[in-house]
């Protein structure tokens, strides 16, 4: 990527705001289109000559899929299909970089889990829809001449996090500083990656990938459990004597149906192309907590 690149963004602003990109709006090399990939009319406002398409659009709330799978079917699979069809009809030869997820692995026997692990058995509808998107992108790449870079993310955190465990804990404690409810048994242990490290991995993967379709895990090299995250939030908010209430969860202590209890990705492939996270899981979580609390 170069600083001279021209960038066009399509976003329905369902989880973001114009203020997040206000410093770019007046830039002649930046073009913002408010629209949704589910609306094919919005796609007609896009250019036809992209070098790289970063496909980050999705509904990231894993819990939603256990109660309303239709949301992930449309916002993940249908949205991806619409984008691929747009690129096909435009006869684009762009490289598509897709934001997938560690959830496609389900509950692998090998931890840390490499990109080559299989068979892939997602346990959430969210993970299943992301795996379906990977398959669609792969098929389109081979059939219509795209290059594809598929990135499987650990839990991405940062100052604009508006869902997930950190956001939920802060909200709960602001509403009731005397008690923190933690879904599950508190032992769910996963990797977290800071958003800046994630962006740099995307750039490096697009630049260094050599296959027509290539896969990369993006995550930290360690893990942290959800109970420790709760303790970090309590400490950062300056609270004492907080009653931590563990719900016990479902199916062996999961927070919800489809919650992967243990996750850590093998990132050796990503590191082999020159990327390494600057923050580990605990550092990423603590920095995110402090940034959210400071506004």
- Main β sheet profile: 4 strands, parallel
How big a fraction of the residues is strand? Answer: 15-25%
Residue-averaged pLDDT, rounded?
Answer: 94
> Mind telling me which CATH architecture of the largest domain this is?
3-Layer(aba) Sandwich
**Tally of structural domains:** 2
Order of helices and strands: EEHEHHEHEEHEEEHEEHEEHH
Overall outline: globular
- Total number of beta strands: 13
Radius of gyration: 19 Å
Give a quick rundown of the structure.
This protein is of the alpha/beta class. It is built from nine helices and 13 strands.
Overall description:
This protein is α/β, with parallel strands linked by helices. It has two domains: 189 residues, Rossmann fold, CATH 3.40.50.720; 80 residues, Alpha-Beta Complex (UDP-galactose 4-epimerase, domain 1). The chain is 35% helix and 18% strand. It has nine helices and 13 strands. The chain has a four-stranded parallel beta sheet with strand order 3-4-5-10, with helices on both faces. Strands 11-8-13 form a three-stranded mixed beta sheet. Helix 5 packs across helix 7. The longest helix has 21 residues. The radius of gyration is 19 Å and the shape is globular. The mean pLDDT is 94.
């Amino acid at each position: 990527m170069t600083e001279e690149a021209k960038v066009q963004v399509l976003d329905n602003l369902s989880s973001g705001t114009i203020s997040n990109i206000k410093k770019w709006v007046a830039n002649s090399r930046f073009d913002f289109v408010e629209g949704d990939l589910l609306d094919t009319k919005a796609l007609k406002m896009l250019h036809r000559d992209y070098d790289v398409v970063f496909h980050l659009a999705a509904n990231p709330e894993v819990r939603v899929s256990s109660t309303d799978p239709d949301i992930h079917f449309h916002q993940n699979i249908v949205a991806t299909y619409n984008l691929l069809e747009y690129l096909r009809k435009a006869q684009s030869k762009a490289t598509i970089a897709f934001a997938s997820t560690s959830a496609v692995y389900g509950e692998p026997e090998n931890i840390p889990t490499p990109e080559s692990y299989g068979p892939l058995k997602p346990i959430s509808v969210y993970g299943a829809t992301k795996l379906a998107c990977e398959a669609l992108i792969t098929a389109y790449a081979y059939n219509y001449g795209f290059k594809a870079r598929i990135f499987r993310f650990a839990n991405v955190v940062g100052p604009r996090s508006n869902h997930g465990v950190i956001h939920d804990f802060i909200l709960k404690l602001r509403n009731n500083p005397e008690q923190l409810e933690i879904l599950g048994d508190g032992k769910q242990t996963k990797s977290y990656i800071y958003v800046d490290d994630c962006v740099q991995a995307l750039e490096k993967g697009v630049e260094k990938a050599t296959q027509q379709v290539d896969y990369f895990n993006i995550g930290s090299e360690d893990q942290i459990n959800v109970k420790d995250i709760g303790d970090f939030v309590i400490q950062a908010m300056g609270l004492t004597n907080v009653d931590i209430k563990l719900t016990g969860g479902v199916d062996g202590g999961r927070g919800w149906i489809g919650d992967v209890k243990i996750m850590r990705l093998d990132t050796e492939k990503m590191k082999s192309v020159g990327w390494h996270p600057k923050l580990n899981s605990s550092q990423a979580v603590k920095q995110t907590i402090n940034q959210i609390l400071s506004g």
